[in-house]
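EI: anyone free to look at a 221-residue chain?
SC: sure, send it
EI:
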Amino acid sequence: MNSRKGHLQLLWVLLALTLTCGPLDAFPAPRSRAEAVAGLKHPSPTARAEALAWLALNGQMADQPLLIGGLRDADKRVRDIAEQSLWVLWGRSGEAALDKLLAEGTGQMQAGRFNEALATFSEIIRRKPAFAEGWNKRATLYFLAGDYERSLADCDEVLKRNPQHFGALSGCGQILFRLERLERALEYWKRALEVNPNMPGVETNIQILERMLQEKRARTT
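SC: here you go
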């Protein structure tokens, strides 16, 4: 639910921490996609982190599986960078004007100017319906406004375009839980965790909901 700028800033912070806490050996940043892809298999977490950051800033949606693979890296710092890298990648439409609109709409939403944000996100969707993050931002707006059915519908549009969008999967779980569609909420939260196992909040939600459903079944038998 943060802006692309926020994810980008966090990406650089995490990368700086990795470089500081990592091995003393310095590794040059990748200069091409080929170097970045090779860097993902480097034994140094620093090199892997730099490779993920390069793909976040320069890669295409076709590179998403490479970043998702980083969510299961042995090093937690690299996993954190992989998560933020995915958000940065998802926030890049490939068109500077749309990226600017996305940033404007996110700022409007964060400032509570929901009507303006709704118009901005809807314009992004109109111009480029294939851009999943436009739908995701509008889904977030509808959720904050308490319009859960519209939010759920927009989440579905995100997942049609990007089935591995763990943010939308987790969001669907939240909405369905609030609508008391508990079995479906559990399904979406489990799907989110399958994509990104580094979501302790979702993991906790699953555990709580499984207990709730177990107690509910016990009362009806």
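EI: The two ends are 40 Å apart (CA to CA).
SC: 👍
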